[in-house]
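Q: I have 320 residues here and want to know how they pack in 3D. Can you give me a structure?
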Amino acid sequence: MDPALDLLVRLARRHAFADLGALASAVLPNGQEIADICEFGQRLLSLDAEDFAAEARSVPAGLRRRARACHMPQTAREQPRGALASLRPAYGVLLEVIAIRWDRRELSPMIAAVHIASEYLPLLAFETVLGHAGDPMLWPEGLSAPGSRFGVIGDRECDHTKAEQSAANRTLRVGIEPREGWRAYFDRQHSQVAGALAKCVAGCRNPCTAMDWIAAKDREDLALRAKVALAFADTPLVRLRHAAPVGHGFGVPSPEEVLQAWERSRALLDRNPVGHAATEDDGFPLPGLPSLFSAVAAAPVSPGTLLADIGAYLVERLTS
């Protein structure tokens, strides 16, 4: 194989989409096609969920369809609903990204991916009772039932912080806001709603009627899974995201520090049957992380193959 082409193939197999896309046009007759595919792959690797569904004509329809399943709708009425229908495909991509970043020793973006996973993990737990992944257009009426304090700003009996109360209030009406308001809500407040829901069902000291719509037979199981989701967000592994002395992005942890933080996290989580899943050896670079997500979701959640399949398709196009 030509040395230049061999280098490009190696980049594709390492998921180095940005580098490959930048180099391809200089050495290949189909360089623009390769660059388009690389841009598609880079959006996924960067977890740019707003643009997962962006047009990419050079990419096979099957790969685009799988990316759309992880896409965050940009309007209240956009169809399909992507990650608002289910977060399980998105968590498959998150786990694949975490594994790729670990393999490439890109630990700062890896920890950022872990942090994103922690923020939305309560919604993964709530899918079993909601039937969706926290779609503001489909919230149950029970959240606003008489006696509910969910989204009531300034209620001192509510355990939610002011920020959580504001986010909860907005999620109940964001569906009628214009596109800009919808996007701003997801940029800044949707993850806070995830935590607020978990707090309602798992740790509220003054329960109201907000969770009465959940069947009694499901509530105890959901409460435990939500409790573990909240606990994961406070583990040493996730706190590495905030450990920098001068803002995010400084003081990148070493591989040894990441593994040590994860071992401490596993020990802290191992206090109930759901958290115990983190102690499993499932072959992942952070052993037990997919098992933990599966236990919280009460459904299989495993590392996806979307990025690997994009890399394989690039190799095919490079060598054809």
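Q: Anything worth noting?
A: The chain has a mean pLDDT of 94. Residues 129 and 218 are 8 Å apart (CA to CA).
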